[in-house]
Amino acid sequence: MLISETGPSLDVISVLYTIEGLLQAVIVVIIMPWLDTNMFWKFFLSTWIILMGPPLAICALGKIHWVFYLVTLLLVDVAMTVATGLLSVLLLRSIAWEHISTFHKQVSTLAGFTIGASYVQMPLKSGVGSWEAASLIGHGAIALLLLLVYATHRNAMRKFWDDLAEPIQRGENGDMEEEDLSELEEIDEEELGEDPPSLVRMTEHERKTADANLPGLLE
């Protein structure tokens, strides 16, 4: 809407959006290999780019030229891809496995409220009279909420920093260490036997015996 008010027609804007999407895909492919280090800073920097980019463009850059709206959109889209890509790594390296599901549900609920609140931008603009004020109010409220979370969870933020300080190490076996790989390759020959029976040739008795021994093998 802002571009169409000060720039080209909707047909041209749709073409520009297509080009922006292609540039986003290329940029993401280029920067992904550099996300293995300093993940804490890169994740939170990307989230703040998403938060502060639109107000900056609406209140300042867009007034210089409408092309800055597209530039900001490209920057925000790339930052969103980076944040989404790093989120799973952050969770797996910072939170105990049994807590990931609960944490993800809590964050998804908060994200749902935030997304739902974003749909009041149009009536908010009508109420305050300008897109600038609506953008500052909408994004400013989320910024204050994030600052409150950071201030009340300083120990957790420090723990994230410590846990994510080490880069991801990848060798010939991927992310696995040699010791972990050797443990997976070990086979208990006493339980499995030198020549385990084929599933095709197993009798009903052998199949029941194998099923009974399966929990012990998994442990």
From TrEMBL:
Report TM segments: 12-34, 40-61, 68-92, 133-151
Give the record's keywords alphabetically: Membrane, Transmembrane, Transmembrane helix
The answer to keyword Transmembrane helix applying to this record is yes
What InterPro entries does its record include? Answer: MFS_trans_sf (IPR036259)
Highest taxon of the lineage: Eukaryota
Entry annotated with the keyword Metal-binding: no
Residue ranges of the region described as Disordered: 171-219
- Composition bias type Acidic residues, residue spans: 174-194
The identity of this protein, by name, is Uncharacterized protein
